[in-house]
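Review form for a predicted model. The reviewer records the input and the model, then writes brief findings.
Reviewer: anonymous (R2)
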Amino acid sequence: MAGSGRLWCALALAAGALALAGTASGQVPEGAMLPTAEEHPTAALPEASPHWVYVLEPVFPHLIASKVWMIDGDSLGVLGMVNGGYTANLALAEGGSELYLAETYWSRGTRGERSDMVTTFDGRTLDPKGEVTLPEGRFLVVPKKYDAVLTTDGRYLLSFNMDPATSVSVVDLQNQSYLTDIEVPGCGLIFPSGPRRFSMICADGSLLTVNFDEAGEAQMTRGEPFFDAENDPVFEHPGFSQKQGEAFFVSYSGMVYPVDFSGDEPQFGDAWSVVTEEEKGHWWPGGWQVAAYHPDSNRLFVNMHEGGKWTHKHAGEEVWVFDVETKERLQRITTEHGAFSSIVTQDDQPLLYTLSETQTLSAFDGTSYEHKGDVGQLGISPYLLYVVGE
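Model under review:
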């Protein structure tokens, strides 16, 4: 009997609830009644603007889930975000039509079977649209811009690897297939200089140049050192215009080493210093992405700070602007939040972006150097900056 009583009580409660629901629905205006949404449409971004900036964040507190933030530099609004794997590296298709992430996952999150791949994302919907496995893996380290790059025609993605021998994985994006791994003799960072050609920095300060064919067969040449790797090494992120094939490597002491990658072999210009004799020993380049280059105006932007020797990881208190033709310093831009990484857009009305260690992205007019505004609280540990047309 007790069980029957509980059953009748439950039925009565259910009937009451249905009656209340019916009454409530009768009180809702007909126009406000909406069907249950069975589809989840994805909003689409417009065509990428030259003033968009892509911020790669490794998310240091939990490295298995990196992010790419997309910011509109004109409105200083967040456009979208892409999730990536462990210490992902980013590359952008021409015009920002696609994003490519070289990323790593484990089947149990932080353990289990490891898988490495290059994932293609639609640049407007930010949906994943393709994936190519990297069978030889990839080098897992703090993200560096030149650990994953596109060849100059955009067909191949080149991903740096070390296991423990150093190599470059080649992914054919056109055919969505893995081509090969090219073993390189202890050199790192990849600077594309042709449809099937790239250069790398070696431990002695020289450049290795690699040419490969559509079958993945490679030929290599190596030059003489162009900087003193032992006493005054260069930063890993030069001011580099891939379109023009021009790079400006900045050393820890402030020497600038111009390199022309546009020909079959790299050509080197005369080195010059960003600091005067009076400033030596007091002002130093520093940060992570330490230099940015705008080829149309011949301007080089360098993060600078006051300090002592070996303070190369300190963020810039200022960004110094130089004419690379005359070697003249044109401006000293004070950065309120600090410049850990910097980049300049590649259009004829450029914007300079600086990224601080306190998750603040600042925008400046790249010609008048006027401060345009900030985007604060950008993730947890944003690190690298990218723009279209580099």
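Findings: DSSP finds one helix and 30 strands in the chain.
Further findings: The CA atoms of residues 64 and 212 lie 33 Å apart.
Recommendation: see findings above.
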